[in-house]
Design a protein that fits this description.
By secondary structure, the chain is of the alpha+beta class. It is built from three helices and seven strands.
Length: 143
């Protein structure tokens, strides 16, 4: 079995926890912080299917996942498969992405962890992308 790598990024956001949660789960708001991606969810419950559609560098994509754990306003865990990965749509090619919110002073700490990255380089690339995403979520939440 080959080694897999984890990407982890976090940020403090000076906004109420329920507001940050809404930004993470409302498709109209997700589009504002996730590079214009259109997100749809079959049901906000364990087993619910998540789809992400958009265009990146003139190429259409449709990514997907399944909700594994959901604690409203605290934690969302899902699988994630990228159609742009070039890998087959098979369980071993899915990442596990966790969004965790916890109180932090007069705001909230948002931590995003992405597990099952195939290489250290891909984990670093994911961390960099998540840092960009976190900054966008912070700006949206704090305005």
């Amino acid at each position: 079995m080959s080694e897999k790598f984890t990407a982890k990024s976090e940020i403090i956001i000076r906004a109420p926890q329920d507001k940050v949660w809404k930004i993470l789960t409302d498709p109209d708001l997700v589009k504002q912080w996730l590079f214009g991606t259109e997100m749809s969810v079959s049901a906000w419950q364990v087993g619910g299917q998540i789809r992400y559609r958009g265009v990146w560098q003139d190429k259409s994509y449709e990514d997907k996942g399944e909700i594994l754990e959901l604690i409203p306003e605290q934690k969302l865990v899902s699988t994630y498969y990228s159609s742009m990965s070039g890998k087959p749509d098979a369980p071993e090619n899915y990442s596990r992405v966790t969004y965790e919110l916890s109180p932090a002073g007069d705001g909230v700490q948002l931590t995003i962890t992405q597990e099952n990255n195939p290489t250290a380089e891909s984990a670093q690339h994911s961390e960099n992308n998540w840092q960009t995403v976190l900054q966008s979520v912070k700006q949206l939440a704090e305005k």
